[in-house]
Amino acid sequence: MTTLSPPPAPPTAPIRPEVVARTGLYALLAANVAVVTYFFVQAGFAGNALIVLGRLAGLYGALLMAFQLLLVARLPWLDRRIGMDRLTLWHRWTGFALVWTLLTHAVLITFGYAEGTGMDPVSQLVDLAETTEGVLRAVVALGLLLVIGTVSARWARRRLAYETWHFTHLYTYLVVVLAFSHQVATGSTFVSSAAARAYWWTLWGVALGAVCLGRLLLPLWRNRRHRLRVTAVIPENDHVVSVHITGRDLDRLPARAGQFFLWRFLTKDRWWQANPYSLSAAPDGRTLRLTAKAAGDGSAALRHLRPGTRVFAEGPYGAFTTLHRTRPGTLLVAGGVGVTPIRALLEELDGPTVLIYRVAAERDAVLHDELRDLAHAKGAELHLVTGPATPDRLTPAELARLVPDVTDRDVYVCGPPGMTSAVRRGLRELGVPRAQIHFERFSLAG
Asked: How big is the chain by its Cα radius of gyration, in Å?
């Protein structure tokens, strides 16, 4: 039996939540750039032009490092409005900017001091590391950052297991500690201004506090409160399984249809591994359900979970929700097992709704019976589109044929990356405004 949750009304505010959050982040960064520049100018310009520019690059690098931490702190307010996928992507590009900024800092400072002493740059760097407090720590931090930046490059990331990449990435926190200790020891603003010292201590305290709150304290508190456990494991077909979970006070868990959790099932062989799975049913305050396809050891092991298994869940995460609706009508486009958040959204949506479900063959249509019954109950249209992945069946012409008023609807797309990209291109060709196209990249590593 399907329990229908009361659907929230589409937002009526003239400014979209994503725009509010994104503008807030830009304004926060710009304001801090202005503050850093002010304190830098106030401290005076000691040294030649290379040293002056190098110090400014170092301060901007410290600011970017703190901003990077904020982007991956997984703060609920930001995540619901922007989404973990976009925040992680911004974190990635900020990281590359950080590497170049700090590399510029090191090169300019080294060449600047070498110009004054007459030493060659390598000898000058060695001399600074040996004689100036904090410089050796900064050199080690920069070396670690270069390694992390290298393994985060797309060509390297594709060749590494997620666990290897993640473990290497944890050294970023060591980089933060080493870099900040260097800044405290040698930064001119720390020496010349009490206000600047207070600013930097506050900046780093807020950035690290946000990470501690979002990634440690909040998950620990929620799991202690809700005490999640597996209640049933139901195979949907030979490759897909649904896991039903219950707990205490789930009506107070701020989860919405379309969101996902990082699920950690506390068995002796899998307790250490967390995997992202979307909710495949709208939260009803009593139970949660995820549906996953066996694509690796972690997802394949779900079939063997036993009722009563304890669960540690981080989340909910994601902006793939009805919070971002702009129109009364909706088009849902799902591909393969990407139907799971789409099925949850269909349960929550009100207004004229069309669902297009793209699969290779009808036997691959996971949860199809549920979708059919739910569509009938809500008066929604359901189109099952079958056929090989190439040539693409969801062309702009096909989308326009199935949904003639597509430009007047919000469109939610979830499926394999190739299908999602093709559908988004098709929607833009049809003139659907970007603000009405909602999608999410389900990738923790950006």
From this structure: 25
Task: Report the predicted TM-score, pTM, of the whole model to 2 decimal places.
Answer: 0.87
Phi, psi at 245, each rounded to 5°: -135, 140
What DSSP string runs through 368-392? HHHHHHHHHHHT-EEEEEES-SSS-
The answer to whether the beta carbons of residues 404 and 431 sit under 8 Å apart is: no
Asked if 277 and 292 touch (Cβ cutoff 8 Å), the reply is: yes
φ/ψ (deg, to 5) at 16: -70, 145
State residue 260 phi and psi, 5-degree precision: -135, 165
Separation CA 132–CA 110 (nearest Å): 12
CB 347 within 8 A of CB 2: yes
d(CA 139, CA 130): 11
What residue spans define the domains of the chain?
Answer: 17-220, 227-317, 322-439
Task: Give, in order, the Cα–Cα distances in Å from 269 to each of 115, 120, 272, 276, 297.
Answer: 59, 55, 8, 18, 11
Whether the upstream peptide bond of residue 316 has omega within 30° of 0, thus cis, is: yes
Q: Tell me, what amino acid is at 199?
A: Y
CATH topology of domain 227-317: Elongation Factor Tu (Ef-tu); domain 3 (2.40.30)
Dihedral, 100, 103, 109, 115 alpha carbons, nearest 10: -100
Edge-to-edge strand order for the sheet containing 287-293?
229-235, 240-246, 287-293
Q: What distances in angstroms separate CA 399 from CA 198, 357, 361, 407, 408, one per listed residue?
A: 57, 12, 19, 11, 13
Q: Please count the other Cβ atoms lying within 10 Å of the Cβ belonging to residue 445.
A: 13
375-419: per-residue pLDDT in tens?
Answer: 999 999 999 999 887 667 789 999 999 999 999 999 999 998 889
Give the residue ranges of DSSP H helices in 6-83. 17-43, 49-71, 76-82
Q: Tell me how far apart the alpha carbons of residues 331 and 406 are, in angstroms, rounded to a whole number.
A: 7
List pLDDT tens digits, range 132-165. 888 888 889 889 888 888 887 777 777 777 667 7
Tokens of 182: 């260097």
Question: What is the CB neighbour count within 10 angstroms for residue 297?
Answer: 11
Tokens 């068995």 -> residue: 267
What is the CATH number that goes with domain 322-439? Answer: 3.40.50.80
